[in-house]
Amino acid sequence: MDRGSNRVLALYRKLETQYGPQYGNKVWPRKQRRAGITPASPCWWPAETQYEIVVGALLTQNTSWNNVEKAIANLKAAGKLSPEAILKTRNTKLETLIRPSGFYRQKAERLKLLTKAYSRVLREKRIPTREELLAVKGVGKETADSILLYAYGLPHFVIDAYTRRFCSHHRLFLSKEYDDYKRFFERSLPRDAGLYGEYHALIVRWGKKAKMNL
DNA sequence: GGCCAGGACACCA
DNA sequence: TGGTGTCATGGC
């Protein structure tokens, strides 16, 4: 932990008091992760399986969650929300199903690439590294960290537009670099995936509320 | 009808 | 390294 962590923690407690728990800290227990079991979770990131979180992380790029939900519902209804089904589906079909999430041509292609990487590490019974995820075309830093945190329960703080806005608004930190923000939060907080997830969820909640009040 | 959303990438200087 | 264009839908 670093200097300034008191302020970061104080803001967390303030958000928690204001908005209550977002269940962003519902990460898969280690035992279940090892066994490949991913139980239904009342997480702020609604998903029934680990793979659904991975799919959501990609589809939500520059897209409202509302539209992502429509795309995921389409995939579910078509029985395509599994790595095997996605890999067997033609790109044109995939494009039709995920169309509501926008950028559907590139997302269909990238969803397949990500699914291939996901299946590979699953077969090898291990967790992907950040570098491995970043090597997949279409997976940037935010998407990689979202997957590591929310799908695998690893302590990677997610930096998104809301997080940057939050930092600027509270004069916490200012930079242009994603990794600077990530380091700032990770040095200011105890290394705890549950806390990271909950904090990020609260920041998003704050961001949406702040926008409504503009 | 315009703006924005839980980004990433290619291309250029 | 930094700036800009592109990808696209749906809600407000």
Which H/E pattern describes the elements?
HHHHHHHHHHHH
Unreliable sequence segments: 25-33, 35-42
Termini distance?
A: 34 Å
Number of domains: 2
CATH architecture of the largest domain: Orthogonal Bundle
Classified in CATH, the superfamily of the largest domain is Hypothetical protein, domain 2
Helix content class: 55-70%
What percent strand? under 5%
Number of strands: 0
Oligomer designation: single chain
What would you note in describing this structure?
This protein has 214 residues and is mainly alpha-helical. It folds into two domains: 1-27 and 155-214; 36-152, Hypothetical protein, domain 2 (Endonuclease III, domain 1, Orthogonal Bundle). It is built from twelve helices and no strands. Helix 3 crosses helix 4 and helix 10 packs across helix 12 (193-212). The structure holds a DNA duplex (13 and 12 nucleotides).
List keywords for this structure.
214 residues; mainly alpha; Endonuclease III, domain 1; 2 domains; 12 helices; DNA-binding
Summarize the structure.
This protein is mainly α and 214 residues long. It contains twelve helices and no strands.
Which helices and strands appear, and what pairs or packs with what?
Elements lengths: L4 H15 L10 H5 L15 H10 L5 H13 L5 H6 L2 H8 L5 H20 L6 H5 L6 H11 L9 H9 L8 H11 L4 H20 L2
Helix pairs in contact: 1-12, 3-4, 3-7, 3-9, 6-7, 10-12
The chain binds a DNA duplex (13 and 12 nucleotides) through helix 3, helix 4, helix 7, helix 9 and helix 10.
